[in-house]
Amino acid sequence: MAAEDAAQQARALQQALEHSGWFDSSWLQDALYEWAESGVPVAEVRAWLAADVVRADDASALRGLGISAEQVRAARLGERVSMDVLSVEDAARLLLDVADLGDIRRRVRARGLATGPAGADEAAHVRNGLAWWRGQLQRVASLTDAIPADLRAWVLAEVRGTNDVGLLRLRDMAGEEWGSPVTIAVARQELDRLTRLRLTNHPEPSGPLLQLMLGSLAVEELNRRLAQRLEAAIADPPTYLLAMLGPYPPSDAAQLTWTQAALDVEDFRLEYQITDAQQALGAADIAMPLDRRERFHALNRSLAEARIELDRAELGRMGGADSRGWRSYGAADPKPNRPAGRQEPDESLPRDVPAGLPGAGAVEPGADSRPDERLTQHLRGLAQVLPAWTRAAAARLPDDDLAACWQTAMAYSLGRDLGPPIELQFESKIELGSDGGSFRVHYDDPGRSTVATPAPLLEAAAMIEELDRRVEAKVQAAIADPPPHILRALGSWPHSPGASALWEVEAVEIEHYRLVTGTSNPTHPLGPPEPPGNSWRQCWRRALTQNLAQCGSTWMRYRHSVIGSAEERADVEEVVASAADPWLSVGPDAAILTEHEQLPTSTLRSRVVHAAALLAGSWPPNRSRELAAARSRHVKLERYAEEQRLLLDAAQPRRAWPGLAITPRARAARAAVRAIIGKHEQALDRLHERLANAAREIARLERAQDAYVDWRAEHGRFVAQGQAAGQVLQAREDRLLDELAVYPPAYLLVELGPPPVNPEGRAAWRRGARALECYRATYRIDDPHRTLAVDVQWGATISLRWWEEERDRVREEVGGVRRAITESLAHELDRGQAPPGPDDLPGPINER
């Protein structure tokens, strides 16, 4: 958005707020910032103000539920919301006539009214977020020139006394809350007003403006400190820059490359407070947040390119020396001699480069692949057009020869633009060039000239398919029986579709790296640690190390999601048990179960939570059995009544049978007939009363059953989906415990020891593993070595005392499991069976 458009919107927004009559001078400025940051168009702001909704947060919350200003105005609820008489949630329930807003929010998201930023994948999503964040901070930094001198001096004194962490916090607060274009335009208007008024009095800036001024000058101070760090690095390069870039070069072009790369490194270290004296980008073997990980990979690639460019410049300066004359990729001399003509620290430094902005520096958008990735892609493209006979010999080569061929091609490709693969026609011929160092492609078409392609690239292209085939074979073997280096890096192959795909991608990366670099360490996936440096191999290694660290965190979260916290497990048990509840009579069919077996765990969890919320409410029970029994009783009563009517009808004629005779026998006969008739009449009266009661009971049960049928029609599908999701989650949990029993992680081995082979001991071991994994999932413990961490993220949800009690409870439970395992082993010895030795591990279960 152009600055003029933003300023025009800010003025229109201020006029709308002033004309509403809701705001006095003390509230107007803060409300103006809040509405500007909300992003609601000015026309819609006027509509919300006309509906008496005066807070931007309230309007945004109602908009997020799909409620318009016209609906609020028609219901006359806006003033009650603005006066805090009615909450936004209660107003939404009245307007939407629902009790649960969760379903409304799900429908809104489905309609796309509350979707997040678009992105093709996670990396694109992060890049979009970083671009948005960079724009926010650039707008905040642009306020520096508009701050009055006296306010600037006061704020600058504050930020100069603040450490780096505090400056980053001030910058982030300003960027997150007030960095939109319209908000910055509002701030500029307030600054202009303050500049005019300060000639006569000294008005105080609003709270948002104060935050913006602190954030703007914090960016300026971070720039100054970044420039100081760069000056110090040029004067005396630290160890991490010497390892990554080498000493400061003498030529002007190389100095520019070195300085820009050093600026990127220092910017990254300042942003994430890295203090590692050896590693320029910090330790790569830790899980990083998405934004830091994206910047780490981008900077790792760009620094590798910078080092290649610096080495080529050094080679050219030395008069075309061969590759043995290039600077080493290892650690450089920590105290190099200053070359003649070297740029002094105070000459032409890029002082105006914004500090702390994500992506600031020379990380170009095009630097999206490492040297090894570019070479591999080029070779695979080239291999597609090579004749079959050029690729046949690769199958007979040992792994070492394939690796040597690939490394030769890599050495040739460094610093060169490989371009697209050549196109070979059916009648094209390939022969060795006269120079002995390249292949020449002769086309059958006389109109096309001969193309020369270097021999290292064609030789490597001829074997790349065989290399890929061997890597795939190693990965398939690792799926069936993972070797130690795969177990250490990735664990065993997971059965979940999404997790298994990620596992296989990382396994391919590991095996490809090990094959082409000749790594044969049996336990470490990437071989023993190497000294810090910046060769193509170390660039590749850093990227894989970070990917594996992230995978370790991902696998731990995957286990947490499958096992679930104590609360999640309670929901699963309740929902699954409801499938057998005769009062509910809702259960998943085979089609629903099959569908849910392919869903990710997060989706299954959300469906269980939804079903648990429905079951926790006052759902009407299924009265079908009671209704059937009541109808059956009514039918029986009608049959009894009919029988009594027939008997009564048969007795009625007998009433006159003795006639008027007055003999004792006649009188007795008449009395007997009256008694029989009275008995049948009383029975009919009682049956009619019972039939009326039965009819009323049937009507009541029919109403109750209708309510149940209506509830089931509306919610039964969601409950059945939750039941299916719970059953699938329980199956995945059992499968995960089977995998953990075959390849137990270190923290389970420490607490429980190796899984016993005997059924009693193995069942006890599984109980202990389930309890420990549930505890770790509940308290989000990701440490791969410690089972019960000494501190957890308890502050936001539970008290420290509660956590300590839970930890003690789990320890007691695990102690009972250990005793059960010991007793099972003792029983095995009593029966004359020896317990398994340390090498008698069960076979693999990961089979497709």
Describe the protein's architecture and organization.
This protein has 848 residues and is an all-alpha fold. The protein is 64% helix and 2% strand. The chain is built from 31 helices and three strands. It has helices at residues 3-20, 25-38, 42-50, 56-64, 69-75, 78-82, 88-96, 101-111, 122-141, 149-160, 164-178, 181-197, 207-235, 239-245, 252-271, 290-317, 371-383, 389-392, 399-413, 455-480, 484-490, 497-517, 536-563, 566-578, 590-596, 601-616, 624-651, 664-742, 746-752, 759-778, 800-830, and strands at 429-432, 438-442, 451-454. A three-stranded antiparallel β-sheet has the order 1-2-3. A hairpin with a 5-residue loop joins strand 1 (429-432) and strand 2. Helix 3 (42-50) runs parallel beside helix 5 (69-75) and helix 30 runs antiparallel to helix 31 (800-830).
SS field, number of helical segments: 31
Within the largest sheet, what's the order of strands? Answer: 1-2-3
The amount of beta strand, in percent, is under 5%
Shape: extended
Query: In terms of structural class, how would the helical and strand content be classed?
Result: mainly alpha
Low-confidence stretches: 104-120, 321-366, 791-797, 837-848
Q: What average pLDDT do the residues reach?
A: 79
Q: Calculate the terminal CA-CA distance, rounded to whole Å.
A: 54 Å
The biggest beta sheet is recorded as: 3 strands, antiparallel
Number of strands: 3
Radius of gyration, CA atoms, in whole angstroms: 39 Å
Helical amount: 55-70%
